[in-house]
Each structure stands twice: as C-alpha cells, then as structure tokens.
Amino acid sequence: MYAFLGISMKLTEHIPLLKILFLAHFSFIVGLQKAPRITTLLETVDVLLDHNATFICEVDSRPQADITWTRNNIQIRPYDSRYLTRENGQMLIIPNVKDTDNGEYCCIADNGIGEPAKSCGALQMKMKPQIKRHPTNVTLLIDSKAVLPCVTLGNPKPDISWIKDDDLVKISDRISILDYGALKIHNIKREDAGQYRCVARNSFGIVFSKLVTIEVQAPARILRVPKEKRVPFGTEVKLECNATGNPIPTITWLENGNTISGASIEETLVGQVILSVLRVVANKPALYTCLATNHHSGGANTVKATAKVTVSGRSFQ
Ligand SMILES: *[C@@H]1O[C@H](CO)[C@@H](O)[C@H](O)[C@H]1NC(C)=O
Ligand SMILES: *[C@@H]1O[C@H](CO)[C@@H](O)[C@H](O)[C@H]1NC(C)=O
Ligand SMILES: *[C@@H]1O[C@H](CO)[C@@H](O)[C@H](O)[C@H]1NC(C)=O
Q1: Cβ 161 vs Cβ 178: under 8 Å
Q2: What's the pTM?
Q3: In sequence order, what are the residues at sequence separation of 6 or more whose Cβ sits closer than 8 angstroms to the Cβ of residue 168?
Q4: Which of 84, 181, 267, 299 lies 20 to 30 Å (CA to CA) from residue 135?
Q5: For residue 204, how far is its CA from the centre of ligand 1 (angstroms)?
Q6: Which SUPFAM superfamilies match (predicted)?
Q7: How far is CA 60 from CA 2, 24, 69, 103, 214, in A?
Q8: What is the chain's percent helix, strand, coil content, to nearest 5?
Q9: Which regions of the chain are under pLDDT 70?
Q10: Alpha-carbon dihedral sign for residues 65, 71, 76, 81
Q11: Span from the CA of 51 to the centroid of ligand 1 (angstroms)
C-alpha cells in the first residue's frame, strides 16, 4: 500500500488529472480500511502462583493489525518462550506465573493506518504467605538490641506478628515489628529470653516460621560481697561471696592477691546465683578477694570484691 502510494505520488507530481483520479481511488481504499480499535480492553489479572494468566486484547482493524505486547514498557519478543500468544496475538498467555511476572502488560495494535491502539492491564500474582528468611537463634548481651528477621512473600502482602512462648508479642516503646516483618527489641532484658516465631497471614493462608531462641547473657556481677572480719588468732574465718550472670560465673578466691592453699571452698548454685563460702584459719592478717568471671558474647568479664581479715589476741611485730 505504501509502495503504491509512493509511485502514485511521483506520477501525480506532473499529471494533475491522474492526481485527481488517484485521490478518488485513495479515499475509496481508506473507506475500506480503518485504524485499529481495541474492543476488549485489558483488565487486571489476578492469578495464583503457578497458575496460567491470560490477557485478552480483542482488536477490530482493517487490514488486520500487528499486535505487540509489552511488560513494564519493554517489548516482549515474538518468540519469547516465557509467553504464548493465540488468536493472532490477541491473547497473551503466561503459563505457571511466578512473582517475577508481576507488572503492567500492554497490547499495541498497529495496521499502519492512523494511530496504533493501546490498552494496558496489570498482572497481580496472588500468593499464600511464604517465609523466605526465617529468624535464627541468637545469644545477646543484656542491654543490647535484637533484630530477628522474618522475610515473607505473599500477595496481598502478609501481616506479620510474632509469638513468644505461645503468646503474642506485645508491641511497646522497646519492642517493635519493622515494615519488612523483623522483630526489633531494644535494651534486651532478661525476661526477653524465650522462644520466638513469626506468623505471616493474608487472605490466602497463614504460615509460621521456625521456632528460635533468644538467649540473654549478662556479665558476671557480685551480689554479696565478703565482709570485713576481726577474729582471734588461729580460728576459722568464714567469708561469703555470691555472684550472678549468664553464663553462671565461676568464683575464685585470692589471699593477698595470690591463690590460696589450705582453704576450704564450698559452692552452691541457687537459680542463677552461685554462692561461694571460703573457710580459712586466720593466723595472720590478710586481704581476701572474691573474683567472679564469665565469658559471654561480648567477651570475658571479671568482677571482684575484697575483704580485710584482721587477727586479734596476738601481736605481730
Ligand atoms: C497452563 O498452560 C499450560 C500450557 O499452556 C497447560 O498445559 C496447563 O494445563 C495450564 N494450567 C492451568 C492450571 O490451566
Ligand atoms: C535453636 O536452638 C534450639 C535449642 O534452643 C535448637 O533445638 C534448634 O535446633 C536451634 N535452631 C537452629 C536453627 O539453630
Ligand atoms: C546472694 O546475695 C544476695 C545479696 O546479699 C542475697 O539477697 C541472696 O539471697 C544471695 N543468694 C544466694 C543464693 O546466696
């Protein structure tokens, strides 16, 4: 048709009569032809994961229009194996839809007459919630902060909640759920220790993450410091020291800064508190130091407390 038009143009430049005839002929042809019109417009297609999506773009056009499709404004190549077309391109089929197929699809019909016609619609993959990244066990030092991830997929976007030891986690100024589903705890406290899981829910389903543990560690801390004592020469002196922490600290004793020989040490664990009782015969004045040590995720930590023991009833020169 263009070729014909081109030749005609050339001829008509010099022959006005032919020009008139040509124009009459041209309008006759145009009368039979028409620019494409899309009679069935694209609609938003909601499709579940792994199902087939179909867009329909019914075109009225003379002569028949070439129909091309785009996804997110990028043309789909005619033989792209990801897609199937039917009905001379008026139907686009996307088999086994994945979330990567989401986007805006358009059909463009062009027959060289007038403006091409275009219609667009979105592909929205509907999907049951899935957990893409689970939280993991964490060991944290008291007063630090925790972020437990819970990355989900799903459409509509799943609502995320968190469960601790079978109860819903309460949101507070210290505990929040971030936009992307992670649980964030500021200023970790001992009572935050426990078992957690996230729950993702949308209108298509619900899914639970793995169960994970938050362990809260605390540096060693002495609760009961040994008391200063004055005892008669040669008697047994009893010093007590107790400490807590997570892991449970170990307690050691020093006499004037050195390890002690010939002393009795008795340890008792009550809950998270370790009590150490030192019994030693007082035959000289001395300084006794209780050392409490533990190793936690922040490193090692030792605290100490010292008591002076003085001896009465005998003079030391
Ligand atoms: C999706 O399309 C494929 C190929 O066109 C076909 O074999 C399959 O049965 C279709 N699946 C559904 C769920 O319609
Ligand atoms: C997390 O810790 C628990 C014990 O508290 C253990 O049973 C589980 O296997 C751990 N999970 C992972 C993912 O390491
Ligand atoms: C440890 O010391 C504290 C403070 O003196 C005391 O309240 C607590 O009962 C002691 N616990 C043990 C197990 O000795």
Answers
A1: no
A2: 0.63
A3: 161, 162
A4: 299
A5: 22
A6: Immunoglobulin
A7: 21, 25, 16, 26, 64
A8: 10, 55, 35
A9: 1-31, 314-317
A10: negative
A11: 7
Cβ atoms < 10 Å from Cβ of 109 = 24
pLDDT the model gives residue 42: 94
- Of 45, 51, 52, the one to substitute when testing ligand 1's pocket (max ligand atoms within 8 A of C-beta) is 52
Under a CB-based contact definition with an 8 Å cutoff, are residues 286 and 310 in contact? no
DSSP secondary structure letter of residue 166: T
Would you state the pLDDT for residue 314? Answer: 59
Residue tagged 């050691």 (tokens)? 252
Q: What span, in angstroms and rounded, lies between the C-alpha atoms of 18 and 26?
A: 12
Q: Output the residue whose Cα is nearest ligand 1's atom 14.
A: 52
Ligand 2 atom having least distance to the Cα of 210 = 13
pLDDT value at residue 215: 96
Name 131's bridge partners. 152
295: Cβ contacts below 8 Å, ≥ 6 apart: 247, 301
DSSP 75-92: EPPTT-TT-EEETTTTEE
Atom of ligand 2 nearest to the CA of 134: 13
Q: What pLDDT is recorded for position 29?
A: 54
Ligand 2 pocket test: pick from 212, 214, 215 the residue with the most ligand atoms within 8 Å of its Cβ. Answer: 212
Per-residue confidence (pLDDT) for residue 79, from 0 to 100: 86
Environment class of residue 229 by beta-carbon count within 10 Å: exposed (0-12), middle (13-18) or buried (19+)?
middle
Query: If you take atom 14 of ligand 3, which residue's CA is the nearest one?
Result: 275
Atom of ligand 3 nearest to the CA of 273: 13
Nearest to 309 by CA among 226, 225, 228: 228
Half-sphere exposure of 242 (CA within 13 A, CB side): 10
- How far, in Å, CA of 154 to CA of 303, rounded? 51
Q: String of b and e for 128-166 (b: at least 16 CB within 10 Å)? A: bbebeebbeebebbbeeebebbbbbbbbeebebbbbbee
| Ligand 1 neighbours by CB, cut-off 6 Å | 51-52, 84, 95
Torsion 5-6-7-12 (CA) sign = positive
